[in-house]
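All the exercises in this workshop are built on plain-text protein records. Sequence and backbone structure share a record, each on its own labelled line. The structure tokens are whole numbers drawn from a learned vocabulary of backbone shapes. The record below serves as our worked example for the rest of this section.
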Amino acid sequence: MLKSESISEKDADFRLVPMYNLDARGGFGGNEEVDVAEYIVDYIPFKDAKQGDICVPIIGNSMAPTYCAGAIVLLHRVEQWADFLELGQVYMIVLKDGRRLIKELRASQEDRKSKYLCVSHNPTFDPVELPKDMISRVFLVRAVYAKTAM
């Protein structure tokens, strides 16, 4: 028999985080949704979420096994990303043309001043050099919520 658990007083450190109609993709193609209205489709409880955090689902498998398709990631906007980003972290990057990518960012091997190296966790995908001037917004991936089958 399965027991249903409800959120109790001891779980008060969770926050209901808005999940948007957008997604984060592992690859560079497929979500060219320029000027799509962003709106909330649900609220997901995350422990230790901060004010202003959002969440979106993952599409694709280039970041598997760390972030698999169907998982939901908790995101925190990095306001001054152009001044400083902690390399080696995973970010959702919003490009100026509307595409949204989820990648681990590292120092560019070609040009550290004007590019990042976007690395997939799935070894079948090659790293890609990304010009910084293509980026409009950056969100740090703070947590992942993945449903598991039993």
